[in-house]
Amino acid sequence: MQLLNNRTAVPSARPSNASSRRSAVTRPIVKVQAIDEAANAIINNAEGIVTRIASAAPAAASCVGNCLVISGMKIDTTIALGGAVAAAALVAGLAWAAENNKPQAAAEDAPRPARAGTPKPAPLKRENAVLVLGASGRVGRRVVERLIKMGRTVVAATRSTDTAKAALGEAGLVEGAQPGGKGILFYEAADVTSVDSLKRAGLWKGVTQVVLCVGGKAGPLPGGGFGYIDGLTPEVVEAGGIANLVSVLPEVLPKQASLQYTTLVPMGTTDEVAVWERMDDVIMGGNSSSVIELAPELGAGITRWRGELIVEGGGFCGARTKAMADGADLSGYDGVALRVKGDGQIFKINIKTTDQLDSPESVYQATFDTVPGQWTDVTIPWHNFVPVKRAQSDPAGAPLDPSKKAKFGLVLSRFEFNKMPNPAYKPGPFELLIDGGIRAYKAPRAQLVQVSSAGVERNAIIGDDVERRKADIPIVQLNPGATLNHKYAAELAVRASGYPYTVVRSTGMIDSNEGGPFLLEADQGDIISGSISRDEAADVLVAALTSPEAVGKTFEVRRGEALDARGKSMNPAAYTRMFLRLALDRNRWRVGLPPFPKYAPPPAPVTEERTQEILNEVTRVREVQKAAMDAKAGPADVKKEVAAAGKA
Predict the structure, then answer these.
(1) pLDDT (tens digit, 9 = 90+) per residue, 143-171?
(2) Would you tell me which CATH number, out of the four given (3.20.20.105, 3.60.15.10, 3.40.50.1100, 3.40.50.720), belongs to the domain 186-254+452-590?
(3) How far apart are CA 147 and CA 74, in angstroms?
(4) pTM, rounded to two decimals
(5) How high does pLDDT run on average in the chain?
(6) Of 423, 432, 318, 422, which is closest to residue 373 (Cα–Cα)?
């Protein structure tokens, strides 16, 4: 029974003034403080009072929606609560009257309770939410914290909402809107091992993205020993659970896998073309010239920019729009898009922000290629735009702020940046056709972001080859509970789901951030090892949620092992560069990586004796690594020490 939204605060009794206390009038001694406390107790326990009404006659009382039903008579809980509030108000008024020797005025002057029909606060919006499965785990709770700090709406889902509330409560998170107004947190019960649980409509309300932090649940067993609790093995939770999730997604999660566009600078009418101004090199004594005009003979909405580039005296042609009235806030988009047909030359697109309107020498520039005689769809993300000042790149310039667009421009120049030659320009006549003007685009984000483990791919390749397994890294040798096999099965399900995804394979997870911060490194093909903290892993998962550059990629990530990686923090630009260096999974074999191996069944479990040998070796290697790093040895020295310790 939800009554919190119906509570009405009642002021405590008014204190008597100083002159009254000094009055010689004799009056009864009243324990005002005790009465005031009683009034507050009634307010604070109003919900309990209503509950006890029902418990007093359990056979005849029940709760239906916001109504209390007693012996067939339905009482709205707001009315019941209003009665409790009224009682508190009466007690408070009596206290004030007794203190002021005005017993007849007590009820008249007591604060009045709110009417039972007071509107409830509007329910919190649940939209564009991130569903975090496994939210009470050590990585999951960190993901929730970071998303809330960003202002996102989060649905924290676990088998037990009490467990999630306890774990996230320790981090200072509360259900609903957070103090300060940033982020909204909802709790939902969800069990990935149950398809029916995953199909529950309420779970998916407002959800657009999912973070998969589920894993087997290991710990002390009731009968002694250590193992998987309640049968929640990696096979059941990860391989089976994520397969269950993927099977229900088409019913519960709308797919967002295509670019979204909005027109910024239409160029389909005479008036729309008229906003463009010539900016050829004649402004600085050159002889080049150009014009933007409609090309109705080629189709509706097609514009032609044509001219003649003359190198002597300048060497560029340009056109620029007039300033937009209030600028253009494009922070909800990822870049600009053009559909063009050119002659094989490299062109530039310029953006001038509202901050640069009084600085004619400052602009942001990006380049785009054309294919001779072919229509090409060009997308240019914001991070491709270079700050330029006086025709030179400006290393101190701030990144382009998408919320402050004021003017757009087109340029064909014999120079690229910093007087470096444009590798694809031709003096003389040129023509660039533009279909649909200049548009802004929003790229799909990953709707499924999964935390997996380094070692899953090489484990699948090794299969049942015992000797190769002995020579590999410790996690592959141990493979507790065949977890690498089951994590890989979960990966395969995610990649085959048809939804935009990112799979993050963490290297060895630790809780310590000692010595940090660290730059992170990512690679593909399961060829690196190392360590990463759970805080860092959570940061990567959140960055993958927000970065279109991470979509469709599977990669391993670790702390940078170079000495100069210490003391440096990752930032949005660093994450963008890290993701851009990675190949799309569908293009792996085009960049020298093998295709993903097929699933391999679990190998035979490792004996206890062999397990201890492996763990002893791990301890020795870590000690050598720490000693080498503490001594600030160079990377080559570290590798020698590690090799001497027997690490593969």
Answers:
(1) 999 999 999 999 999 999 999 999 999 99
(2) 3.40.50.720
(3) 43
(4) 0.77
(5) 83
(6) 432
Strand residues in 369-498 grouped as ranges (E): 375-381, 386-389, 392-393, 405-413, 428-435, 438-442, 448-453
Long-range CB contact pairs, 466-470, < 8 A, 24+: 466/603, 469/603
Phi (first) and psi of residue 299, to 5 degrees: 130, 160
**Buried/exposed code over 151-184 (b: 16+ C-beta within 10 A; e: otherwise):** ebbbbbbbbebeebbebbeeeebebeebeeeebb
* Measured distance CA(268)–CA(296) in Å, rounded: 9
The 10s digit of each residue's pLDDT in 170-229 is: 999 999 999 987 899 999 999 999 999 999 989 999 999 999 999 999 888 888 888 898
Among the listed residues 86, 77, 107, 82, the one whose alpha carbon sits nearest the alpha carbon of residue 95: 107
Q: What is the largest CA-CA distance in the chain?
A: 109
Scanning 200-280, the segments in alpha helix (DSSP H) are 234, 241-252, 270-273
377/337 Cα distance (integer angstroms): 7
Strand partners, 321: 276
Q: Please give the Cα distance from 479 to 605 (Å, whole number).
A: 8
Instruction: Tell me the HSE value of 9 on the side-chain side, using a 13 A CA sphere.
Output: 2
Q: What is the pLDDT of residues 14-32, one digit of tens each?
A: 444 444 443 433 333 333 3
Q: What is the CATH number assigned to the segment(s) 262-442?
A: 2.60.120.430
Q: What are the angstrom distances between the C-alpha of 555 and each of 242, 315, 457, 471?
A: 19, 45, 11, 23
Of residues 373, 349, 375, the one with CA closest to residue 363: 349
Query: What are 176's strand-pairing partners?
Result: 185
Tokens of 100: 């002021």
DSSP H or E run through 212: strand 207-212
